[in-house]
Amino acid sequence: MSVLPNPSAARQGRALLEARPLVVERGVSRHAEGSARLRLGHTEILATVSIEAKVPPHVRGKREGWLMAEYSMLPRSTQDRMNRERNLQNGRRHEIQRLLGRAFRVALDLSHFRNQTLIIDCDVLEADGGTRVASVMAGYAALHDLCDRQVKAGTLTDWPIRSPLGAVSVGLVGNDIRLDLDYSEDARARADLNVIVTGDGKVVEVQGGAEGEAIAPELYIELLRAGVGGAGTLLASLQRQL
Fold first, then answer.
1. What pLDDT band is residue 91 in, cutting at 50, 70 and 90?
2. Packing angle between helix 131-153 and helix 217-241, nearest 10 degrees?
3. Is the Cβ–Cβ distance between 234 and 19 less than 8 Å?
4. Where phosphate is bound, by residue (predicted)?
5. Residue 132 annotated as binding?
6. If we measure between CA atoms, which residue out of 107, 137, 175 comes closest to residue 41?
7. Element housing 127 (H / E)
8. What is the pLDDT of residue 63?
């Protein structure tokens, strides 16, 4: 994957702790039960929700359904064409899918979907850093679209979302803590975290660490605090658009 040109202009006028503009549109797929397209700067994600009338063996007989997530990058989502992800053993993809699944299961009360499996597909249309955190928010928006449709149709009688989800990347580039890294910044970061929070500011997951050289615990906490604040700000923007 090629580094994007002109790293010095990467922030494009943003302050160090300012995220890129977030734009989301719901109901973009005619066929999916729920869908959303989300753009975070130049990173763009299409998320769809499908419902299957079955559950995996470990959920059978329980009073709740199941949720799983799939993640993929399209060949020209990057500057140079990448091969289609036909290898089911792709480690990075599986790591991101597990992250997404855990986050969405925190957000949704699956007792409203007994004997059903929700599959959230997050496809990267264009990548410029932060694809996994953008996928969290796109997938949440698609879930919101699904639930809104089903409540209005009378399929669901109660609102099943327990908490909205916000997410952001934060990193140490040089000596600066920067929020919402684009690709050129992420490639130079000494440390970076992906932070996912709920609507009341609680942490769902923190993923990441140092690159090449360990950092002090105090600096890690500073990164985490910046991430929690930034994820909350992006979530507020997302909520306004839903």
1. confident
2. 40
3. yes
4. 92, 130-132
5. yes
6. 137
7. none
8. 86
Structure tokens at 206: 């923190």
First-to-last alpha carbon distance for the chain, in angstroms, is 33
**Residue 151 exposed, middle or buried by CB count within 10 Å (0-12, 13-18, 19+):** middle
Residue 233 is labelled as binding a ligand: no
Q: Tell whether residue 60 is among the known ligand binding residues.
A: no
Residue 29: Cβ within 10 Å count = 19
* 86 annotated among ligand-binding-site residues: no
Sorted by where each starts, the structural domains of the chain and their CATH numbers stand as: 12-241 (3.30.230.70)
Q: Please give the structure tokens belonging to residue 79.
A: 């500057």
Measured in whole angstroms, how far is the alpha carbon of residue 184 from the centre of its chain?
A: 19
* Structure letter (DSSP) for residue 114: T
CB 179 within 8 A of CB 232: no
Is 10 buried (19+), middle (13-18) or exposed (0-12) by CB count in 10 A?
buried
Whether residue 201 has pLDDT greater than 50? yes
Helix 131-153 / helix 91-107 crossing angle, nearest 10 deg: 40
* Burial label, 7 (beta-carbon count in 10 A; 0-12, 13-18, 19+): middle
Structure pTM?
Answer: 0.92
Residue 45, helix vs strand vs coil: strand
Kindly give the pairing relationship between strand 117-126 and strand 203-210: unpaired
